[in-house]
C-alpha cells in the first residue's frame, strides 16, 4: 500500500531567510487537501545553479511518486532526480552519510514557465518513479526569468513523497540542521574552527508506515555537532551580493547595486567558488591520510578566504556608493584596493602540497617530469577546469551521464589531480616573447611576466603549434584579463604569429567551441573578445575563409545559445555576430538554415524546452535575418517547407510568449505573402489562435 513518506532535509544549496528549507511542506507526510499552503522553500537571491536539495527517508523505501508544488513565478526550468539506496554490502547499523554514497540519475522533468496564467497559478508536477531509495537528491536547474522573479530564485511550496517503507534504520549518519539554521552553515569553509566529533543519531521509525493505529513518536533532541566533513558545495558559495554577513559576528551590510556590478567582483566570485571547493576537498583528503599539517594549512586558508570575501564585498559596496555620489576619485582608490586584495589572495590561498604520502625521490621525479612536459609544451594529464555562473561550482560536467551512478563528492574539485607549469615570458623564443609582452601589456600585467599553464584535459598540441605555448596558457588562465587579452592580440595582431593565418584561425575557432571556454566563458568581456575574433574571421582579411568555414559554421549553435543569455550585452553581441554570418556571401545559406531548425541548447549542449522564450527568439531572429537578406532558399538548401513549418514556425506561432508569437507571425505572414512558403489547410488548422489563423489564411 502506498502512503505518504516522511523525510528529513539534509542539505540545500541556499535558502532565502524568509523561506527557509525547514518550511518546506510535505516533510512530515501528506499535505492534506484544504490545508493552508505551506510557506515553502526558496533559494537565495542570485544563487548559483543548480540549486540542490538532499533528503533522507527513515530507511530504505520503495519510492513510487514525487509531487512537487512549484512557486507561481520562481520556477525552475527543470528538476533532475537522483537516488541512492543502502545495499547488502553497506553496514545498516552504521549507514553512510549522503556525502559518501553514489547517486544514480533517473532522469529530469521540465516545468512550465506559467506565463499563460500570468503567474497566478501553481503547478503541481507528479513524477512516477518506482525505485528503491534511502537518499533523494533533486537538482533544480536555472529559473525562468520574469518580472516577478528579479532575484533569479527557485521556489517550491511542498515536496510530497509516496511509497512504503522496506527496511527501517535505527541510526543515521547525518545530523539535521538546527531550527532556523540553514543546512549549509555546518560547513567549515564558513566556520573554520574545529568542530566536535560526529555523533550518530537515533531514528524514530514512522509507525504510520508500520501500523496505522500507532502515532509517530517525537524525534529525540540532537547535538549541535556538525559533520566532521563539510559539504563541499556549501563551503564554496560566496556571500551573495544581496545578503548580509552574519558569520563571525560581522556586521551586516547592503549589497552593491547590480547596475554597477564590476567585472572584478565576478572574477573574485569565480575564484572564491573554485578555491573553496579545492581547499575543502584537500583538507578532507589530508585528514583521511593523517597529514594534519596540510589539513591545518587548508583550514587557515579557508578562514582567510572567508574573511577577505567579507572585506571584498564591503569594498564593492563602498565603490558603488562612491559612483552613485559621483566621487570617482574615491571609487578609483577603492578599485586599487580591491585589485591589490585579489592579487594578494591569489598568492596567500595557493593550494598546499599534496596530501598523498610520497618520498622525496618520487617528488623529485614528478618535478623532473613536469619540467620535461613544459619543455615539450605538453601538460600533465589532468582534470578539466570548471568555470561557469550559470554552471557555477556544483553543476558538474558529468551530470548528463545517462544512468551512470555518481558520487556527491564528485561535485568537489580534486586539486591533487592538477599539474601546473609556470611559463616565463623572458625564457621564450624571441618571436613568442613579443607576443607574450603584447598580451601582458594588453592585460595591464607587465609586472607579472609569467603565467601558469594548466592542462584542461584535451589535446593542446594543435593550438600550441598555431599560437605558441604562452598564448595557450593565457587562453586557459584563471585570470579573465589574460584570456581577454590573448583573444584581443590574436584578433588585432595576427601577423605577430609565425603560423599561417588559416592555421591560427582554424585552431582558435575550434578552441572557442569548447565548453566553458571562448564563446561559453563566464566573463562577458571574454565573450565579447571571442565574438570580435569570429567577426574578424568572417570579414576574411586573410583571404582564407574557405579553409576555416567548417569551424566557423560549427560555432552557430553556440551563438544561438548566447543569444538567449540573461545578459542583454551578450545577447546583442551574439546577434551582431550572427548578422555578419548571414551577410557574408562565403557562408552558404544551406549551412545556416539547418541551425534555425535545431533544438536550441544551453551551455552544456542540453536541449532547452520550447517554453524558453529567449531561445526561441534567437532561432527566429536568425531565420528572420535570412528572410530579410533574401538568402532563404528552402528547397535548394536541402530543407523542405514542411520542416520549416513544423520545426520552427508553427511551434513559435502557437508560443505563449507574445514576443515570440508576434515575431513568428510576422515572418510567416511575409513568407506566405511572398509565395516563398505554402501553408495548406491541414497546417493552417494547427494554428490555435483564430485571429492569427485568419490573418495567415488571408495572405495565401
From TrEMBL:
Q: What is this protein called?
A: Centrosomal protein CEP104 N-terminal domain-containing protein
What Pfam families does its record include?
CEP104-like_TOG, CEP104_N
What the entry lists under PANTHER family is as follows: GLYCINE-, GLUTAMATE-, THIENYLCYCLOHEXYLPIPERIDINE-BINDING PROTEIN, TOG DOMAIN-CONTAINING PROTEIN
Species name: Novymonas esmeraldas
Enumerate composition-biased segments (Low complexity). Answer: 387-399
The Gene Ontology CC terms held by the record are: cilium
Q: Which domain of life is it from?
A: Eukaryota
Q: Which SUPFAM superfamilies match?
A: ARM repeat, Galactose-binding domain-like
**Record-annotated Centrosomal protein CEP104 N-terminal domain positions:** 40-163
* Region called Disordered, residue ranges: 176-256, 377-412
| Gene3D superfamilies in UniProt | Leucine-rich Repeat Variant (1.25.10.10)
Amino acid at each position: 500500500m502506498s502512503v505518504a513518506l516522511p523525510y528529513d532535509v539534509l542539505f540545500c544549496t541556499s535558502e532565502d531567510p524568509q523561506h527557509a528549507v525547514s518550511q518546506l511542506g510535505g516533510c512530515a507526510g501528506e499535505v492534506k487537501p484544504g490545508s493552508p499552503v505551506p510557506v515553502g522553500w526558496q533559494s537565495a537571491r542570485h544563487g548559483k545553479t543548480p540549486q540542490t536539495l538532499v533528503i533522507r527517508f527513515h530507511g530504505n523505501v520503495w519510492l513510487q511518486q514525487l509531487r512537487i508544488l512549484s512557486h507561481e513565478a520562481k520556477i525552475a526550468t527543470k528538476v533532475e532526480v537522483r537516488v541512492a539506496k543502502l545495499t547488502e554490502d553497506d553496514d545498516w547499523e552504521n549507514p553512510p552519510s549522503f556525502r559518501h554514497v553514489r547517486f544514480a540519475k533517473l532522469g529530469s522533468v521540465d516545468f512550465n514557465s506559467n506565463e499563460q496564467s500570468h503567474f497566478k497559478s501553481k503547478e503541481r508536477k507528479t513524477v512516477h518513479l518506482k525505485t528503491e531509495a534511502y537518499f533523494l537528491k533533486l537538482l533544480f536547474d536555472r529559473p525562468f526569468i520574469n518580472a516577478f522573479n528579479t532575484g533569479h530564485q527557485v521556489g517550491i511550496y511542498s515536496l510530497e513523497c509516496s511509497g512504503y517503507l522496506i527496511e527501517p534504520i535505527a541510526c543515521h549518519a547525518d545530523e539535521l540542521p538546527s531550527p532556523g539554521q540553514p543546512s549549509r552553515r555546518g560547513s567549515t569553509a564558513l566556520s573554520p574552527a574545529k568542530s566536535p566529533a560526529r555523533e550518530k543519531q537515533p531514528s524514530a521509525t514512522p509507525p504510520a508506515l508500520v501500523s496505522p493505529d500507532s502515532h509517530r513518536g517525537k524525534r529525540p533532541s540532537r547535538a549541535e555537532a556538525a559533520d566532521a566533513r563539510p559539504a563541499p558545495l556549501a563551503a564554496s558559495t560566496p556571500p551573495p551580493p544581496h545578503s548580509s554577513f552574519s558569520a563571525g559576528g560581522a556586521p551586516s551590510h547592503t549589497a552593491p547595486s547590480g547596475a554597477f556590478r564590476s567585472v572584478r567582483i565576478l572574477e573574485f566570485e569565480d575564484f572564491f567558488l573554485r578555491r573553496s571547493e579545492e581547499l575543502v576537498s584537500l583538507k578532507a583528503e589530508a585528514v583521511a591520510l593523517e597529514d594534519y599539517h596540510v589539513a591545518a594549512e587548508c583550514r587557515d586558508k579557508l578562514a582567510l578566504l572567508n574573511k577577505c570575501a567579507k572585506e571584498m564585498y564591503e569594498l564593492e559596496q563602498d565603490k558603488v556608493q562612491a559612483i552613485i555620489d559621483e566621487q570617482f576619485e574615491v571609487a578609483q582608490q577603492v578599485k586599487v584596493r580591491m585589485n591589490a586584495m585579489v592579487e594578494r589572495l591569489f598568492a596567500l590561498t595557493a593550494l598546499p602540497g599534496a596530501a598523498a604520502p610520497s618520498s622525496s625521490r618520487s617528488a623529485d621525479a614528478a618535478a623532473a617530469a613536469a619540467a620535461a612536459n613544459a619543455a615539450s609544451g605538453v601538460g600533465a594529464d589532468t582534470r578539466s577546469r570548471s568555470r561557469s555562473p550559470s554552471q557555477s561550482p556544483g553543476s558538474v560536467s558529468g551530470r548528463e551521464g545517462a544512468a551512470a551512478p555518481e558520487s556527491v563528492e564528485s561535485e568537489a574539485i580534486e586539486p591533487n589531480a592538477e599539474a601546473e607549469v609556470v611559463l616565463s615570458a623572458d625564457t621564450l623564443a624571441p618571436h613568442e616573447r613579443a607576443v607574450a609582452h603584447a598580451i601582458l601589456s594588453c592585460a595591464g600585467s607587465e609586472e607579472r611576466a609569467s603565467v601558469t599553464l594548466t592542462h584542461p584535459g584535451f589535446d593542446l598540441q594543435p593550438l600550441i603549434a598555431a599560437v605558441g605555448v604562452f598564448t595557450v596558457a593565457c587562453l586557459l588562465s584563471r585570470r579573465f584579463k589574460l584570456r581577454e587579452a590573448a583573444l584581443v592580440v590574436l584578433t588585432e595582431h595576427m601577423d605577430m604569429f609565425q603560423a599561417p593565418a588559416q592555421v591560427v584561425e582554424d585552431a582558435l575557432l575550434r578552441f572557442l567551441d569548447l565548453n566553458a571556454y571562448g564563446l561559453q566563458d563566464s566573463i562577458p568581456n571574454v565573450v565579447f573578445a571571442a565574438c570580435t575574433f569570429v567577426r574578424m574571421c568572417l570579414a576574411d582579411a586573410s583571404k582564407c575563409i574557405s579553409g576555416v568555414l567548417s569551424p566557423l559554421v560549427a560555432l552557430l549553435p553556440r551563438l544561438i545559445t548566447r543569444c538567449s543569455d540573461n545578459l542583454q550585452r551578450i545577447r546583442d553581441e551574439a546577434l551582431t555576430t550572427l548578422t555578419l554570418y548571414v551577410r557574408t556571401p562565403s557562408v552558404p545559406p544551406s549551412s545556416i538554415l539547418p541551425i534555425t531548425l535545431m533544438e536550441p541548447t544551453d551551455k552544456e549542449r542540453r536541449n532547452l524546452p520550447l517554453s524558453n522564450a529567449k531561445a526561441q527568439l534567437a532561432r527566429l531572429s536568425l531565420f528572420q535575418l535570412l528572410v530579410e537578406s533574401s538568402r532563404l532558399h528552402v528547397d535548394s538548401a536541402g530543407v523542405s517547407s514542411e520542416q520549416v513549418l513544423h520545426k520552427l514556425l508553427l511551434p513559435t506561432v502557437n508560443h505563449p510568449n507574445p514576443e515570440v508569437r508576434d515575431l513568428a507571425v510576422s515572418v510567416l505572414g511575409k513568407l506566405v505573402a511572398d509565395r516563398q512558403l505554402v501553408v495548406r489547410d491541414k497546417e493552417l488548422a494547427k494554428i490555435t489562435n483564430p485571429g492569427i489563423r485568419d490573418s495567415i489564411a488571408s495572405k495565401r
